[in-house]
Each structure stands twice: as C-alpha cells, then as structure tokens.
Amino acid sequence: MIRKNPRGDLPQIHESAYVDQTAIICGKVIIEENVFVGPYAVIRADEVNADGDLAPIRIRAHSNIQDGVVIHSKSGALVDIGEHTSIAHRSIVHGPCVVGNNVFLGFNSVVFNCSIGDGCVIRHNAVVDGTDLPPGFYVSSTLRIGPKTDLSTVPRVPQEATEFSEDVVRTNHELVQGYKKLQNEF
C-alpha cells in the first residue's frame, strides 16, 4: 500500500523498483532504482519535528528491504540507506540513522540513532544503538554495540561475510527483475 502521511507527503518510487503489494510505504519516502521491498515491510516517514519539518527516508539504488522489515524515524529525523545494502527479514531501522553502502543487516537486527559505515555486517539479532560504527566492522549475532562499546574489540568483516552480502544483493536484484515481469502478466 502506497499512501500519503498526515502532512500530505507521497512516496517517490522509481519505476524500476519492486514493492510487494503487502508492503506499506507511507509519506516522505524515496525509493531509488532496482530496490526490492519484500512482503509486509513497513517504511513510514510521517513524524515531524517541533518545527513541523520532516527529513526523508531514502532507500538508495540496488538495495533490498526484506520481509517484515520496519523502517521509521523519530521526530522527522533522516534515515538514509545506502546502495547495494541488504536489510534482512524482520529487522528494524529507526532514525535518526544512516546505513552505508554494501551493508548487511541480519535477521531481527536493530539499528537506532547511529551511523553504520560502508561494508559493515551486522549479524542476526544484533543491536547498534547510539553510536557510529566505522566502515568494515563485523558485529556478531546477539552482540549489542552502544556508546560505551570499545570498538577495538569489534572485528573487521571477514571475506566470506562480504561474499555472502554480495550474493544476497545479487539474488534480490534478480527478484526485482522477476517480480517486475510478473506484474505485467496480470
């Protein structure tokens, strides 16, 4: 479902993107080319700040927002998801938040009030909250990274994790193409 927010902002969705008909895209959302938005995802840009302003939620080219993902923002803060990035099933991205290019967020991961650098891998059920994660960091499953975390203890992304992330992006790009063709059959 594509709908306006109470302020009247309507999502902007590139014609080459695929948004599943069960997804909800609301308000000041910008979805760029070849993005996949899976079933039951919710991307909602509807809260304004004290001045009535609202930054967009932007999903950059060739990224994928998988089944049941929730992307929202507190008080109109920016959410920007980079190119070739995968947000896996049931993850939560809550603004303010910037997620870089070539990032992988695993199942049920949560990122809030943070910046995730290019090439990072956040594994399943991990949390990054209130801190900036530099490029190329690997957050293992169930780990919580916060403002008091000593980042020198967080490992760099291993090659096999990078290859896995690239494969997920490739697979979802193929899904965009396949589902776009199916749309034309009905």
TrEMBL record:
Coiled coil: none annotated. Belongs to the gamma-class carbonic anhydrase family. This is Carbonate dehydratase. It comes from Azonexus hydrophilus.
